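The aim of this short unit is practical: by the end, you should be able to scan a pair of folded records and say something sensible about each. We start with the first protein, listed as its amino acid sequence and then its structure tokens.
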Amino acid sequence: MALKSFGFVLFITLFLIVYFLAGRVVPQKWIILAFSLYVVLRATGPVSLAVLIIVCVMVWTGGRIIARDRKSDPGRAGLWYLIGLVFCIGTLLYFKFLTPVYDGLAAIIANRGGVSLPEIAAPIGLSYYALSLAAYLTDIRHGKHEAEESLPDLFAYAMYFPALFQGPINLYKDLMPQLKENHSFDQTNLIYGLQRLLWGYVKKAVIADRIGILVTGMLGDENVRGAALFFAMVLYSFQIYADFSGGIDVIMGVSETMGITLKENFRAPLISHSVTEYWQRWHMTLGTIMEKYLYYPIVLSKRMRRVSKKIKSKYLSRVFAATVATFIVFVLVGIWHGTGWNYVVYGLYQAFFTSTAILLGPVYKRIKEILHIHDKNPVWSLFTILRTFVVLTFGRYLIRVASLSRAGALYARTFSFAGAPKLSVDMLTQWLNARNLILMLCGILVMIAVDILHDRGVQIRTTILSMPLPVRYAIYYAAIFLIIICGIYGKGYDAASFIYEQF
């Protein structure tokens, strides 16, 4: 079942009916758990569901022991904390890096012993619930909250099905209290949720998937080189944002109809003025996890402080820990996204720009003072946005393809100007006709405009809700029309697949 499918819409409709009607009799968290178990079972099978259940049981057991022995027996608490992390992070690492080992072993046993080992597919949402449960254990260890007493409740938290598709990553203290409440049907929540869900589907079906046809066609044509290829990668930057944020909007919208508020995952990342700012606006829940549970522990560790004190330069001593921690965090962010060397290099690429921003901060500041450059100057502001966008676009070469060698080939084609075809409308219409090109460009502009308005505090959904009824419904019907009539569907095109589902 994919987010962009008629089956998902029917599933959510049935779920909401049961959620609000049966929720008057039984706790709604049980209904969420039942539907979540179905989603996991249908998406990845019984063996993968068993893996997820085992991880949850070990985390629940470990959490209770850690909470009980945190002060009286720190050694025992620390051991169970380590065991819990091994189950969370170890499962994640296995499915990211070691599945070929299992497949090879299964093939040998099948050939020599005639015994077939079960196929184990990566559980849906593995990257998200693994980090959520690891954060849950860490918070208990540090006394941030108590351990969950109910195993089914922890299941409902870890398997919260809307977030299993592609996030956001939900911390226990934010989501669990909402799951333990029973939520009455609220018309305003329903309207706001459906508004966001519609906008998410517009971004995915009308904008992202339309861009995807053009990008796939251009990158797959070896004759497309130079500026034309870079233009395709610029479009890919818009595609991946429309795709990922569109999916998150659908998930947030579904949750909102239930009366559950999730943490925002994006804040207008396309208008970032630096790579550092971009990562503060993009996939913010992942950023929160990395900051709280990796960055600050590294910076504040005793070993890092000892090393920093040995550095003679006062400035370097002050920024050394932050620079190293930032570098480590972004290398791991790259690995979190995928298993190939291209993802490692992608992490190093991001780490370079974010780390040097800290290390060379005073140098950049002094240069701007000499040149009399002010951050609020409109021309400079536009320049920094475009500069950041270009830097990030070049980085995305590394995650658009399956390997480092293919990424290298794309870079080579981009800088191959001799005999490169001229970028023109005629070239683009090989893959998208003029009407679709216009619709694609208009969609990109509208998406950017909406982001800018949101960033400036304009509540578009509230504004729509305050409009006269005919105008309001005209907007809703226009969105539905765009999704159904102008959405990209058809044989041979996997429109149901979201890019970030692979991460």
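Turning to the second protein, read its sequence before its tokens, just as you did above.
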Amino acid sequence: MDLLSKKIVMAKDIGVHGNLFGGILMAWLDEAAAALATEYCRTPNMLTVRIGELVFKKPLKAGHHLRIYGEVTNVGNTSVSISLEARRYNLYSGDEVVVCNTNSTFVRIDDDGQSTAIDDSIRANFMSRLKK
């Protein structure tokens, strides 16, 4: 997986139980995945159509550092699937602990919002990467 994003949990991001509000983490994951999808498919016209189950494995507190990793796991005719992992990063040791993971699907759209094909060269590149 490639590093997509880094965040610092701020006091404004904390929910009523003293942990990072889950909706904020969901937004960070979606933003990181969207950046990967648009860059990978070389188009700004990618739309989130699915975010898989999110299991919050460990809490995040104010001041914690977070790293979001991701990789493209499938390229279809109009869509791309991405695996995501959020990890708490320890500044002192460099250790990372998985706090959440999920899968997302994005679809390429045209100017009218209709799904449209991803370029053949992108699918071919993905397939050749799988064979290695």
